Structures are given as C-alpha cells and as structure tokens.
Amino acid sequence: MATAAAPSRTADPTIGPVRSARDIVPAALWEKQAGLLMRDYPYDSVMAERVLGQGYAYLLTAMNHRGESLGLAPSKIVDVGVHTIILDTVAYAELCEQYNDGHFLHHVPLVESKNDGSVMKTAHRIAADGWEVDLSLWADAPDCGPCHPGNDSH
Asked: Which whole-number Å values give the CA distances from 111 to 121, 132, 148, in the listed order?
C-alpha cells in the first residue's frame, strides 16, 4: 500500500487563499472516487485523497484555460486521479457542465511521452490559479505529459 508522506503543498501567495478541490466536490462523490482509487491502486485513504485532489485541480485548471493551448499535462500519478474522475462519466459530464461552460473536456492522450517541462509548468499554472498543489505528486515530471495540447482537450 502506498504510504502518504507529508505532502508539500504550495500556491502562489500573490493570488490569495489556496483552494482545495475537496471544497467543491460533493462529499459523497469524493468518498466514492477515493474509494475507487483505493480499490484499484495500493493507496490508503490519505494517498487516494491526495491523488484525487490533484486530479481535480488539474482538470479544473484545464477547464479554466480552455482554448488557450497551454499544453497542460499531469504527472503520471496525477493522471491516475484524472482517469478516476473522467471514467465516472455522469459526474464528469456534470463537472464539465458546471466548470467548463457546458463543454465536455475531452481526454486525448498521445502514445509518446514528452520531456519538455510541461508537467511542472502545469503544476505552476494550477498554483497560479489558486489551487492547492501537492508538489511531491508532480515529481515524475521528466517522464510524462502525454496529453493532447488542443483547444478542447487535455
């Protein structure tokens, strides 16, 4: 079982208080998706919630910057949280409706990974948008970031 080390959380102090994804996700949905992570991965509840929170912060940031072609990309472990969220399709469609102006944010992964700094750039963009960033979950940045940088996908 993955252990939940004390996370290093950061946000840009110039933009105000740090927001937590848990504050916007209904409690029953949060518990369900954290449970899915614990079912499918060797995570305890603390680790599952860390991964889930970063997955939401990533998706909400991507939605906030739809059409900007920023080339946002999650780390490998954050992508696990992203997949847990997007595979819960009814809840994900509702998230898109509420936070992406009704537009579905498609997931279009590429086969090849890229080593261009896009993962750490994404973590910084998430922090700049005011979301809590658990830096230790973004540590595998050099080996990933395979998502499509299009205008309506991540």
From this structure: 20, 29, 10
Contact yes or no for 130/17 (Cβ under 8 A): yes
Separation of alpha carbons 118 and 106, rounded Å: 19
Q: Residue 37 class from Cβ within 10 Å (0-12 exposed, 13-18 middle, 19+ buried)?
A: buried
Assess whether pLDDT exceeds 80 at residue 3: no
Instruction: Please tell me the predicted confidence (pLDDT) of residue 8.
Output: 46
54: its two tokens = 């970063």
Break the chain down into helix, strand, coil percent, rounded to 5.
55, 10, 40
Tell me, what's the pLDDT at 24?
Answer: 95
Rounded to two decimals, what is the model's pTM? 0.85
Task: Tell me which H or E stretch contains 134.
Answer: strand 133-134
Question: DSSP secondary structure string, 52-111?
Answer: HHHHHHHHHHHHHTTTS-------HHHHHHHHHHHHSHHHHHHHHHHHTTT---B--B-S
